[in-house]
């Protein structure tokens, strides 16, 4: 990547006018032009929304139930700082090329080879939406048994489609409403903890009955969001500068994910329970907890729907037929609803396991290609010179995924896959590129 990939600087003024068709298509098949890059505030608000999810509460419960206060705080800080580093490397690819994760993957895996990766990630994202919708429908049906669970699933599907179908603009408008509410509820939880009998002093003094260890706590933080970091260029392709990318990912992973993980950790330590809703109910905040859960589920699901629609739009284009992104958004949500109605919530752990194995190696290979193997080559040139299939990239991705699944040399499968993908492809790709350069020099001599 070179300076030629950088879009010209723009003032932080209003967005340029665009048609509804442009908004719905969301530059799914071409670079985001400089005139349509977003202000740093818009990027930050979307990135925070991208990173506030139900996963933060789950991680907080795990960390809060298995570490001391100082261990938990350091684990959350270190885990998210490492995620910022990964997200920045991936995010800069999106900024410099203006491409989605899936278009950028064409330069890495080849025009046909990227179809495999793109479809797999898209299907996993779509399945994840179905699992979330099923979880939501089942939970609310228990509170309001007079209304069938499928009705709540359909309502949830319509809600997330109403934002994801408009791409970045839809995410930005939803986040502008949801993020302030979520932050207010988080602050309310802190006040409630401070007003408990022991207050924060009691939290600091907590000693877990069964500690999970500092390494496991860091691993829990990282594995939860490593996939989000792998696909962050879907957001950062709208950035106006590298500084905005850095501010965005810091806001997302430290202010967004990190803050809510910390509050969930403090809540779990204060009440002695890792279930977020139970914890909030114990603090007298059941209604705010329900609001937070709805908003966080919406965050998580519409981000996945956005990603799935971009993936299928790219794949269908490579297969020779152009289907608009908004059509794929609807197709993806219909299939996700069918997955939900099939009772997929029972397979939640399986989905998380698959995501944690296949997505991080994709990020590792992508980082190695743009920052090491093809460093100094413009994104446009990389796309124009992309082979039909880059077998070494696919092989490294496959081997890294198998290593992550079958070994335990680092904290979690997700981290193992990321590192393995980056190292394997960094070595193999660099060696092959060096040989190609030598062969070209000899033939031109």
TrEMBL record:
The chain crosses the membrane at residues 43-66, 72-95, 107-129, 149-168, 175-194, 200-233, 245-264, 276-298, 326-345, 351-373, 394-411. Keywords: Membrane, Transmembrane, Transmembrane helix. It comes from the Bacteria. It is a multi-pass membrane protein. It is found in: Membrane. The keyword Transmembrane helix applies. InterPro entries: CodB (IPR030191), Pur-cyt_permease (IPR001248). The keyword Transmembrane helix applies. Signal peptide: none annotated. Pfam families: Transp_cyt_pur. Belongs to the purine-cytosine permease (2.A.39) family. This is Cytosine permease. It comes from Pseudonocardia adelaidensis.
């Amino acid at each position: 990547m070179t300076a030629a990939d950088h879009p010209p600087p723009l003032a932080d003024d209003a967005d340029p006018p665009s048609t509804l068709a442009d908004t719905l298509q969301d530059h799914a098949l071409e670079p985001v032009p400089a005139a349509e890059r977003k202000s740093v505030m818009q990027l930050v608000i979307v990135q925070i929304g991208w990173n506030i999810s139900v996963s933060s509460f789950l991680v907080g419960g795990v960390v809060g139930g298995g570490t001391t206060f100082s261990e938990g705080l350091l684990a959350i800080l270190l885990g998210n700082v490492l995620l910022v580093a990964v997200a920045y490397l991936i995010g800069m690819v999106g900024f410099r090329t203006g491409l989605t994760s899936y278009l950028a993957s064409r330069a890495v895996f080849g025009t046909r080879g990227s179809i495999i990766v793109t479809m797999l990630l898209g299907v996993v994202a779509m399945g994840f939406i179905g699992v979330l919708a099923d979880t939501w429908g089942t939970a609310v049906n228990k509170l309001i048994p007079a209304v069938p669970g499928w009705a709540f699933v359909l309502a949830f599907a319509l809600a997330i489609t109403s934002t994801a179908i408009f791409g970045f603009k839809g995410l930005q408008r939803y986040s502008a409403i949801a993020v302030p509410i979520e932050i207010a509820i988080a602050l309310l939880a802190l006040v409630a903890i401070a007003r408990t009998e022991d207050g924060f002093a009691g939290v600091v003094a907590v000693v877990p009955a069964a500690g999970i260890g500092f390494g496991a706590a860091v691993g829990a933080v990282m594995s939860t969001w490593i996939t989000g970091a792998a696909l962050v260029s879907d957001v950062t392709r709208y950035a106006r500068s590298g500084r905005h990318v850095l501010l965005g990912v810091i806001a997302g992973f430290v202010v967004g994910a990190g803050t809510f993980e910390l509050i969930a950790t403090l809540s779990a330590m204060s009440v002695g329970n890792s279930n977020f809703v139970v914890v909030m109910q114990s603090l007298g905040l059941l209604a705010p907890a329900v609001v937070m859960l709805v908003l966080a589920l919406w965050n998580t699901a519409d981000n996945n729907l956005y990603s799935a629609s971009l993936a299928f739009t790219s794949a269908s284009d490579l297969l020779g037929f152009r289907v608009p992104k908004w059509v794929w958004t609807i197709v993806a949500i219909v299939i996700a609803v069918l997955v939900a109605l099939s009772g997929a919530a029972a397979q939640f752990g399986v989905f998380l396991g698959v995501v944690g194995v296949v997505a991080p190696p994709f990020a590792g290979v992508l980082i190695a290609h743009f920052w090491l193997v093809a460093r100094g080559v413009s994104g446009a040139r990389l796309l124009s010179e992309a082979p039909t299939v880059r077998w070494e990239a696919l092989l490294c991705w496959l081997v890294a995924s198998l290593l992550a699944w079958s070994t335990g040399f680092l904290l979690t499968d997700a981290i193992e896959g990321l590192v393995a993908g980056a190292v394997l492809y960094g070595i193999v790709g660099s060696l092959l590129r060096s040989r190609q350069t030598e062969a070209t020099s000899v033939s031109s001599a």
